[in-house]
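Customer escalation, tier 2.

The customer says the design service returned an amino acid string that "doesn't look like it belongs to this structure." They asked us to rerun it and document both sides in this ticket. The original structure tokens are below, unchanged.
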């Protein structure tokens, strides 16, 4: 198994977008996640087994009962194995200068910083925390999120 939907506890404010926790809470509300906010340690205890020892610094936060965590390394390894098994080529460690687009705005390949060009029937952009780096490549309006964990 690669993913675990065990719930996630987010400690921090649930209002405002200045904190990560506030932005995450607002996003979870918008997408309709099964969430419950708490405002102090006493109300947070309701979400944990009685024997759980909670720190004394809990002030505010929320629990998202639907999200969880993943073995990212295993997930990526399985995805790469599947691509290779289907005859796909996987290139890692390459600096992409730009993504080639056709007249409809569909990605048709990449141009590397070295100038080398690679055509592709499918182009997967999996940049993780570096996602903002692709925004300047002219593809941000064409990006399609196909899943999340």
């Amino acid at each position: 198994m690669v993913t675990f939907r065990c719930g996630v506890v987010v400690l921090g404010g649930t209002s405002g977008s200045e904190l990560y926790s506030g932005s995450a809470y607002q996003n979870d509300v918008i997408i309709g996640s099964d969430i419950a906010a708490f405002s102090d340690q006493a109300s947070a205890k309701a979400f944990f087994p009685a024997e759980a020892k909670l720190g004394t610094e809990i002030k505010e936060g929320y629990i998202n009962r639907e999200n969880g965590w993943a073995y990212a390394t295993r997930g990526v390894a399985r995805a790469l194995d599947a691509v290779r098994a289907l005859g796909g080529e996987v290139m890692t460690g390459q600096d992409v200068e730009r993504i080639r687009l056709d007249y409809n705005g569909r990605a048709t390949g990449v141009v590397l910083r070295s100038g080398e060009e690679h055509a592709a029937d499918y182009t997967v952009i999996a940049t993780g925390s570096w996602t903002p780096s692709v925004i300047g490549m002219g593809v941000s309006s064409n990006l399609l999120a196909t899943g999340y964990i």
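Tier 2 assessment: The sequence is consistent with the input. The two ends are 13 Å apart (CA to CA). Residues 38 and 46 are 9 Å apart (CA to CA). Sent an explanation to the customer and offered a walkthrough call.
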